[in-house]
Amino acid sequence: MPMTSRSVAALAAAFMLSLTAACTSAPAPAPEVETEEALVARARGIHERVITMDTHVDINAANFTAASPNYTERLETQVNLPKMEEGGLDAAFFIVYVGQGPLDAGGYAKAYAQAVEKFDAIHRLTTELAPDRIELARTAADVRRIAASGKKVALIGIENGYPIGTDLARVQEFFDRGGRYISLAHNGHSQLADSNTGEQNNEWLHNGLSDLGRQVIAEMNRLGIMVDVSHPSKAAILQMIEISKAPVMASHSSVRALADHSRNMDDELLQAVGKMGGVVQITAFNSYIKTPPPPTAERTAALDALRKEFGITGGGPGALAALSEARRDEFRARMTQLDQEFPPPPRATVSDFVDHIDYAVKLIGLDHVGISSDFDGGGGVVGWNDAAETFNVTLELVRRGYTEAQIGQLWSGNLLRVMEAVERVAREMQAGTE
Asked: pTM score, two decimals?
């Protein structure tokens, strides 16, 4: 029998009625809201699976001897093997740092000796003190292999090219000793590059890089050493980006738009690093994360007097290492009393720190952002004040909605990609095919 218009209409009405009935009788279940307990458990799983890497940890060579206490024990330092193990920090660039001194033969000789002492200290940790717990990585592949073995990973970064002196052959020597990044300046202009500190008085030595500094960049490219743009001046950084044949990295810098400090990267610098394939390792350094109001004159005077009384000249928890345990306890008690009498400005938090990560990710893309602490060099924020608290960073990233893959990139993947690119450029240069 042929279908009439009425029968067609009736069938359509019946279909719509059945569809409506099905929808009303079996509503779709509402999405489950993740509990806090479940979120923390999920974050812990991510933290255990990704390779967590801190690209800037300062050291005191005195903690790397066979005598106890040493780095294999839970010292007062922000980083040591027990705290790395407790907090799930898998890898760290330990820093061969030498402060800026006079640009003459005597200054270079002294700086070189200090650098060698720190190289030797790191090697002693990995070959004598705890070879079953930590191993030195020289390549990105080494990092992955060592982390997979269950050991901690040590890498070496060189903060300040000052110990190179005027001898270009020392770049090769430092590479052979395991150095895998070099910053050409620190606080104060070096023989290689101007420092960010020149911004204060607009006083410059080279207007960026020196001729020797340019030669050092070329040699770093040839050998496979990452160019670290933390600490040099803006002009020097832009010149490094222009002449480097491999992507650069900023080992420990944050976002200037959020904290106006000359050590931080403004949007132009962030974009320049991202455009050339580099990575900026956002650093959890209180005053680089949240510009605090200046302390009162009374607090400053009281703190200066207390530090002078105890003979403390450096920064960070490591500054107390030279004191006896009784003197350290006395200093802390006195410091607590001072804080009560003259309260310090509020410190930055892990949330403030991740705000900088968010900003950089939105501006230059997730592929070009990483994580660092500057522990034992003044770094630390509330919630991530030592390696034992490393999980809190992953937890905050999970709260912000970052996926496991993205968190893996931020913690180590992006830096390892840059490291591999630097290694590839070195092979090509040495083969004459670049």
From this structure: 0.86
